[in-house]
Amino acid sequence: WQERTRAVEDGLSDALHDRLTQRFVDRRTQMLLKGLQNGEQLAAVEEDGAILVDGQGVGRLEGLCYVLEPGAADAERRALSSAARRVLVPELKRRAKALIGDPDEAFALGERGLIIWRCGGAGDGAPVGRLLSGATALAPRLEVLAADSLGSGARAAVRQRLGQWLDGHLRMRMRPLRRLQAAGLDGPGRGLAFLLVEGLGNVRTAAARAVLNGLGAADRAHLTRLGVRFGTRHIYLPAMLKPGAVELRARLWSVHHRTIDLAPQRPSSPALVGADLPPGAAEAIGFEAFGQVCLRVDVVERLAARLRALVRQGPFGLEPELLALTGLQLTELAPVVEALGYGRDQGGTYVRRRSPPPRNPRRRGRAAAHTSPFAALRGLRLSG
Which of 259, 258, 257, 261 is nearest to 248 (CA)? Predict the structure, then answer.
């Protein structure tokens, strides 16, 4: 009986609390509606973006969007929204005007392709736009993040300003690729430039073999003057391997392929170990994947050149110079060296792995000719 009595008391207490809360909410809603009918200014926006209605916090304004806190009843929510909108519409217009007049330094490209507006330098800024997948990674689409309360004219002006900033941002950070596009190359040179632009700054040498075979000395010299470096495994633009360029490449590739944001994976060293990257992501940010180890393509070329120099002197070990060059531990470097074509001998040192001799169809044809029946006929001498 004591347990039953306690349960009844708890139920009555909860019911009473709900009734009192509802009565208070109904009374406040009626006051809000009455104030709105009388034209009273019941809402305000604080400097930190907090939205107050009748002195009570009901939501937040971030950038050009606002969010009302959930939990209110439908009638009260409509009243709060009506009261808030009276002050939010002029505030949104004021912010849009400030955004349009701000310099380029007020904007930044953040995670997941969000365009961040550094609102007056306070806080961490707020998202006002977003990049969406476009025709290519270098041509993303732009979406304005703004409340419906912002008029179409102001929204169009905001879109134009964000578009101007984005074009300038990409043009400055992707200048080496823009120069390749505007170089006026013909034939194989233009084909290689296209592959480099599509790869955001690098392409596998094997993948470009067809255009490399037709590339003349003049085009190669022209591409070299434009900053292109020709390696044994990669053709690349060193300028597109700088930290700022790699970060932008990561964001653009992630947006274009609608995948995880690669920018947090961008390493401060030339190596990336243990990252779970989507297929094609490593090369998109200027790295080559060797299993769980990714090396920046220019470091791969230097490592491959150093290994060729060492093997010419005989079997070699993984000396500290190689560890310093790659930034890898000994256990991490070993599979990379093996992937580059070297194996261990019985002594534990590395030698170049022997590959089977290439098949020559001409030689095979000649050998077959000597053993064919026609060869025997040629050797016969017919007497008259």
Answer: 261
- Please check whether residue 235 is in contact with residue 202, taking contact to mean a CB–CB distance below 8 angstroms: yes
Q: What are φ and ψ of residue 351, in 5° steps? A: -135, 165
HEC readout, 318-375: CCHHHHHHHCCCHHHHHHHHHHCCEEECCCCCEEECCCCCCCCHHHHHHHHHHHCHHH
How many other β-carbons are positioned within 10 Å of the β-carbon of residue 86? 15
Structure tokens that stand for 103 in this block = 């310099």
> Which residues are bridge partners to 107 per DSSP?
117
Residues 88 and 82 sit within 8 Å (Cβ to Cβ): no
Q: Is 0.85 surpassed by the pTM of this model?
A: no
Which of 286, 299, 295 lies closest to 240 in space, CA to CA?
A: 286
Integer Cα distance of 336 and 334 in angstroms: 5
C-beta atoms surrounding 369 within 10 Å: 11
Name the DSSP class of 139. S
Q: How many CB atoms lie within 10 A of CB 261?
A: 16
- Separation between Cα atoms, residue 230 and residue 217, nearest integer Å: 13
Question: Do 298 and 241 meet the contact criterion of CB atoms below 8 Å apart?
Answer: yes
Q: What is the tens place of the pLDDT at every residue in 37-81?
A: 444 445 566 666 676 665 666 677 888 888 776 655 455 566 666
Contact in structure between 130 and 163 (CB atoms under 8 Å): no
Strand partners, 204: 234
Q: What are the residues whose beta carbons fall under 8 Å from the beta carbon of 141, sequence distance 6 or more?
A: 131, 132, 133, 134
> Which of 236, 323, 339 is CA-nearest to residue 286?
236
Q: Is the dihedral of CA 46, 52, 56, 58 positive or negative?
A: negative
